[in-house]
Amino acid sequence: MRKNFLSVGLAAMSLCVVGCSTAGEDVSYEGYKLYSLADNDMIEMPEAGGDKFEDFTDNPFVKTSKEPVSTFSVDADGASYAIMRRHLADGYNIAPASVRIEEFLNYFTFNYASPKGDESVAINAEVGDCPWNPNHHLLRLGIKGRELTTSEMPRANFVFLVDVSGSMASSDKLDLLKRGLTELLYQLNPDDRISLITYSGEVKKLLESTSVRNADKIKKAISKLNADGCTAGGKALKMAYEEALANYDPKCNNRVVMGTDGDFNVGVTNTDELVEMVESYARKGIYMTCLGFGLGNLNDAMMEKISNSGNGTYHYIDCENEMMKVFVHERNQFVSVANDSKCQVSFNPDVVSEYRLIGYENRVMSKEDFENDKKDAGEIGAGQTITALYEIVLKDDKPEGFANQSFFTFDFRYKKTLDGPSRPLQLKMDAGRIFEKYERPDDFYFAAGVAAYGMILRDSPYKGDASIEMAKKLVKQGLSFDPNGYRAELLKIMEIPKNDK
What we know:
Blueprint: E1 2-5, E2 26-29, E3 32-35, E4 42-45, E5 62-63, E6 69-73, H1 79-89, H2 101-106, E7 121-129, E8 137-145, E9 156-163, H3 174-187, E10 193-199, E11 203-211, H4 215-223, H5 233-246, E12 253-260, H6 271-282, E13 287-292, H7 300-309, E14 313-316, H8 320-329, E15 336-347, E16 352-358, E17 364-365, E18 378-381, E19 385-394, E20 406-415, E21 422-430, H9 442-458, H10 468-476, H11 486-493
Parallel strand pairs: 9-10, 9-12, 12-13, 13-14
Antiparallel strand pairs: 1-4, 2-3, 5-16, 6-15, 6-17, 7-8, 8-19, 10-11, 15-18, 15-20, 16-19, 20-21
């Protein structure tokens, strides 16, 4: 453990631009509004070394002549970005394994066109020069889920599964989660239903399924959440799923929302067994959302795996602003409009010599899985955008040689319902587009800046000439579209030196 004074920037338990506040008074530091744990002059900061991340290797360049088709599942998580923000703000090393570039990209909303007609998804693409390697090109794929009006939102059947073990007794953990649950309660419709299950040394159903019309009863149950004991998570997870199943309605958004700071150490603790459990309930129509809190005990690897397997998403809540992002500003993303969403890009070997998918390392799929409706893939929430980047090496840099040739075909498949048939979408681009002289959309440059920053933090062997200054310049070009100021916040984060000790 180390001690840091609140008057110093490293005392920040988070780095959020807009109004982060908890039990104590707000503390300002270099333009950021931070929160204190209490009215004490000194706080205890946990070491981040106990956090568990699954290591991986960056996707390599692939020769198109041998493998012209690239297939992957979408990833709608944003946890990796928020974890980076927390670690960097608190002066900790950024573990390369914690940096998943697809989650950096998909933390942000992009200014993509909405779906038309009967489709729940719209796809788009853009190509331009690669900033960190002038001899290469960058392909950006964009996906947007259909937005839902209030009247279109399905009724919610939520089971909140809350870790109340002793380690959650902190203002950046259980107190923050309690405020998040309360804020979400204010956003829900009167006919939505909420259950509350807690786990520590024992598993307890604190609140049976209750209509939001009885908001006072729900808020009273939330207020009773107190941290004490060890973490019997596996047994609690099963109880939560059974509670969701007992109140299941095929027309509802049936979802377990789990909030925890760490690992399970009582009951079912094996990650493979947990994955098997959540997969079995996902097949019954129960979605999963994982919310991570705190430092030093976070099992990021487990939460990412079970959320992926449970048709869900994984978020890391490091501050009040992030809590508002997940529970209020982007709450519609709790509703999946596109299930088992898969991407497949087919490159023309006569035009493309090599390609590299940036990020999505644990989402890569075999070519045969693309049209297999039984193969699980990622979900896209209402109004959510998904972004993917490929670094491209052309066979020839002469535009005249590619005049009328195909560059690539982007195929996308998704299901409107978990048990429904998949729906195909397709987009094609000619190679002549690569060399057209025009200003690319701001989103193109912003995505490139985010990817460059991620590669720098990972110390990726493919980062080329990428530098912090380059990444900042690219991000600045993407500030014209910035709902809630999250892109501007990234620029301030980039000002913080990376700790290489």
